[in-house]
Design brief:
The protein is mostly helical. Helices cover 57% and strands 9% of the residues. Strands 1-2 form a two-stranded antiparallel sheet. Strand 1 and strand 2 form a beta hairpin. Helix 1 crosses helix 2.
Length: 69
C-alpha cells in the first residue's frame, strides 16, 4: 500500500482544479471527505478521488445550482 501525503485545503483545491472557496463550501455541507487535525482540514487524495468518482462532486454542484437558481 502506497503512503499518500495529507493535503491541505489549498493542496486539494489545486489537485481537483477548483477554488479554495469551493472546498470550504463542500466542507460546510459535509460533502467532501476530510479529516480535522487541530484547526486544519486535511485530505487524502484517494478518498477524494473515490468521492468524485462516486458522483459526490457533481451532486454538490447540483445542490449549489438549485440554491442559486
Amino acid at each position: 500500500m502506497e503512503l499518500q501525503p495529507w493535503l491541505s485545503v489549498e493542496g486539494i483545491a489545486d489537485y481537483l482544479g477548483v477554488s479554495k472557496e469551493t472546498i470550504y463550501r463542500w466542507l460546510e455541507r459535509k460533502k467532501i471527505p476530510a479529516h480535522r487535525i487541530g484547526k486544519l482540514w486535511k485530505f487524502k487524495p484517494s478518498e477524494v478521488d473515490q468521492w468524485v468518482m462516486s458522483g459526490g462532486a457533481s451532486t454538490s454542484k447540483r445542490l449549489q445550482e438549485n440554491q442559486n437558481g
